[in-house]
Amino acid sequence: MRYSVVYEQGDTRWGAYVPDLPGCVAVGASRAEVETLIVEAIGAYLEDWREAGRPIPEPRSATGLVEVA
Fold first, then answer.
1. CATH topology classification for 1-69
2. pLDDT string in tens for the chain (69-residue length)
3. For residue 14, how many other CB atoms are within 10 A of its CB?
4. What is the sign of the dihedral through the CA atoms of 25, 15, 68 and 62?
5. What is the Cα–Cα distance from 18 to 21, expressed in whole angstroms?
6. pTM of the model
7. Which terminal residue of the chain has fewer beta carbons within 10 Å of its beta carbon, N or C?
8. Nearest to 58 by CA among 46, 41, 43
9. Which residues contact 9 (CB under 8 A, 6 or more apart)?
């Protein structure tokens, strides 16, 4: 499965979250670090859901860029 991930740069840290997996987040010192951490977070999130016998959420979100004047 492929999930959309939103990356946000803060004043001192980077954050990432997965819209289709509520509560699945990561924070890191760099974009590269948070990219690694969110992949690990997704894996742990899905493993927890499997162990609980819950159905794995289907990816539903899409990303895109919009140009504004």
1. Double Stranded RNA Binding Domain (3.30.160)
2. 899 999 999 999 999 999 999 999 999 999 999 999 999 999 999 999 999 999 999 999 988 889 998
3. 20
4. negative
5. 5
6. 0.90
7. C
8. 46
9. 31
